[in-house]
Amino acid sequence: MYIIRGGETLYGKIRVQGSKNSSLPILAASILNGRKNTIRDVPKIKDIDVMTEILSYLGADIVRDNNLMVVDSGNVNCSDVPEHLMREMRSSIVLMGALLGRFGKAKVSYPGGCEIGPRPIDLHLKGLAQMGVEFSEGHGFIYAKTDKLRGADIHLDFPSVGATENIMLAGVLAQGTTIIRNVAKEPEIVDLQNFLNRMGAKIKGAGTDTIKVEGCKIDDLKQVEDYTIIPDRIAAGTYLVAAAITNGHIWLTNVIGEHVEPILAKLREMGCMINCSNNVIELYVDKPLKSLDSLRTLPYPGFPTDMQAPMMALLSTVEGTSILVETVFENRFKHAQELRRMGANISINGNTAIIKGVDKLTGAMVEAKDLRAGAALIIAALAAEGETHVEGVCHIERGYENIEDNLTALGAEIVKKY
Ligand code: EPZ
Predict the structure, then answer these.
(1) 20 to 30 Å CA-CA from 278: which of 23, 101, 109, 348?
(2) Ligand 1 proximity of 24 Cβ (cutoff 6 Å)
(3) Is the CB of 161 under 6 A from ligand 1?
(4) Residue 394 bears catalytic tag
(5) How far apart are CA 112 and CA 350, in angstroms?
(6) 278 — pLDDT class (breaks 50, 70, 90)
(7) For residue 123, which of 182, 76, 57 has the smallest C-alpha distance?
């Protein structure tokens, strides 16, 4: 657990980690070329450990040195993803597209739902079926196979991040051209396209509504000599909100302002002072912050659902009533009950949270039920009177590299107790 004594004003400069949600599909993509791929700024987090274990199980040779990863997929010769590892990390489902591209088959277990709601993969399966993949299911496994992947014109019912990534990965070695419409526009999708094109793939359109993948042969693909993962916009947002709740003053380095803009817009609306320049974001608070009439989560470039929980913690401490609507996941308010244990005034009605700011939060024993909920509890604890014990560290370490060292560097009182 983390033990946090609240009341310190955060001050100082920290560097933001590489993106978790970019690293995972890019590591899956490293299977496609059967060669050595050198990837920099991969965060040292649990989810990357799980992906590394899966790739090693499939036969990849991996060298990790701090945030550098060299993945040689020459010896990959297996397309069955171990169930126990798949259960640990849902997003390993994107391996399906890469394995189908490389071997024409894949065996994965059905990714279960999680704390943030049911997580169906119908859009993944529908799109891949259009490319000639046949699916069968048994004993909790999905067996996917195809004689030959072929390009298709696919329209996604919803701009799903995972479905977009899976179909892009399958399209690289498909026969002909794959057009994917109504795709996710997240920066992580653009990063995946850039990595694949560095490998020799022919992909256009990431960041817009439509992506076009011209299929090629595996011999057309080359090793990726040196690719750097984009900064983690959600980790950046988390530290900015932590600074705001303590009326602090911080500088973040290694950030891309444009990627964080949907978050910055809401923090400015609350009254935070923000300067962005040359991959540095400065935030400080010089007056009481205001509540938000409306905060609605949406696919990028809307406000990210992964920042909803941290923002709920912040809005719990500012004067006035805020309305927060979660439109991406069905059941992503589990952190509200834990924040209430700290004295927050939050009522939930379906996918809407009504947050009435309170004068102060007080320390309590709370538990993180998922990654971003954990971040929210740490943020609330930084502003709370007294000591808070945050259980569920394993969830938090899935996505944040050295969060306690970073917060300590900014002046917080946080220790990890084993
Ligand atoms: C990615 O998850 C991220 N994970 C999530 O971040 C993030 O919350 C989410 O995108 C939305 O931004 C990674 O990138 C590893 P989706 P993903 O497919 O791909 C429904 C974090 O904290 N849907 O865009 O699973 C689905 O149920 C994590 O870092 C279908 O109905 O998200 C959800 O309601 C949590 N059918 C919505 O779409 C499908 O086939 C968005 O899901 C696929 C999705």
Answers:
(1) 23
(2) yes
(3) yes
(4) no
(5) 22
(6) confident
(7) 182
